[in-house]
Design goal:
Blueprint (H helix, E strand, L loop, with lengths): L14 H14 L6 E3 L19 H9 L6 E3 L6 E6 L2 E6 L5 E9 L6 E10 L8 H18 L2 E5 L14 H15 L8 E4 L17 E4 H7 L6 E7 H9 L11 E2 L3 E2 L18 E2 L2 E2 L5 E7 H4 L16
Parallel strand pairs: 1-2, 2-4, 8-15
Antiparallel strand pairs: 3-4, 5-6, 7-9, 8-11, 10-15, 12-13, 13-14
Length: 322
């Protein structure tokens, strides 16, 4: 899911077809070694970081649809590790968070640039080699600046605030973030807000209070770890009907992702009902009052959640906003 404004003016098509067009154009210019880097990947089981067993069929089909002009496909997104030969193409992924590095070896013929052989191996990053002195010097240069900002205490907590979802799908930390969005909007002249929503996938760390502590300081650096993406707080006017549709979009075909809501918003849902009918309409309340589908409400959220390009079932429906 991306912000639609970041891709304004660009067009997208099926991955394999667009890859084949680009690879063919490169070959027409005399380029014989083609490596595809893509934000798509395979789900797979098994602990072998250089294995290929139990791989999701959709990714294999995607690679197989790519032409023989393609030599290597470096993939990602799923955070899985694999090293495969699919349809004559080398397909790799190095898991996530810097745990692995993929060493790819292409042997290319000098006379015409054709790839003679290709191999790869995923290597565990053991962190037991000497640090690069230039990088260490660069980090040391900026560390005082980062510490000055990051160590600033911005509040305290008396208990853990975590991303762990409760039975209905919300978390203590998610609810606090949504409350903060709403309060931030209410304190901004001309903004106001009836309710706030936040995407649980954007919460990347917990805030933990040591046992027995009455008030644990929270620093800017800790909060930045919780919300590291630099999203912007925005407030939009939407109809009650648009909010209902948004709630229904939480229940996707492959998974559900419950939005985190401010404490002035409540509703019930029933997963045994058909899709698009799971929210109990009569249960939706804003500030204790029943939701009016025809009324306009002010909603605080992030520009990411609002402007998502529709790559997941969770997005606002722009035609219903104003």
């Amino acid at each position: 899911m991306i912000i639609s404004t970041s891709t304004r003016g660009l067009t997208f098509g099926p991955e394999a077809e667009r890859t084949n067009e680009a690879a063919h154009a490169l070959r027409e210019k005399g380029i014989r070694a083609v490596v595809v880097l893509m934000h798509a990947g395979a789900e797979r089981a098994g602990g072998d970081i250089n294995g290929c067993e139990v791989m999701s069929r959709d990714f294999a089909d995607l690679v197989n649809r790519m032409s023989d002009d393609v030599d290597v496909v470096i993939s990602g997104r799923t955070h899985r590790a694999y090293n495969c030969l699919i349809g004559g193409k080398l397909a790799t992924s190095a898991a996530s968070n810097g745990r692995l590095i993929t060493d790819i070896d292409l042997r290319i013929q000098r006379s015409d640039g054709e790839v003679l052989s290709k191999s790869a191996r995923n290597i565990v990053v053991t962190r037991d080699i000497p640090k690069d002195p230039d990088q260490s010097a660069l980090i040391a240069h900026y560390r005082p600046v980062a510490e000055k900002v990051g160590t600033r205490v911005i509040g305290t907590i008396t208990g853990d605030l975590t991303r762990i979802a409760r039975g209905a799908g919300e978390s203590s930390l998610g609810d606090v973030i949504a409350d903060a969005l709403r309060e931030g909007a209410r304190k901004t002249p001309g903004a106001s807000a009836d309710v706030a929503f936040w995407n649980p996938g954007g919460i990347r760390a917990d805030l933990v209070a040591p046992a027995g502590s009455e008030a644990t300081p929270v620093t800017y650096a800790q909060l930045f770890s919780v919300l590291p993406f630099g999203n912007e707080l925005i407030v939009k006017s939407v109809t009650g009907d648009a909010i209902l549709q948004f709630l229904e979009q939480q229940f996707g075909v492959e998974r559900q992702r419950i939005m985190q809501a401010s404490d002035d918003f409540s509703y019930a849902y029933d997963l045994s009902r058909p899709r698009d009918e799971r929210v109990v309409r009569s249960s939706v309340r804003i500030n204790g009052a029943p939701l009016d589908p025809n009324r306009t409400y002010r909603v605080a959220t992030s520009n990411f959640l609002w402007g998502g390009a529709g790559m997941t079932p969770l997005r606002w429906d722009p035609p219903r906003t104003r």
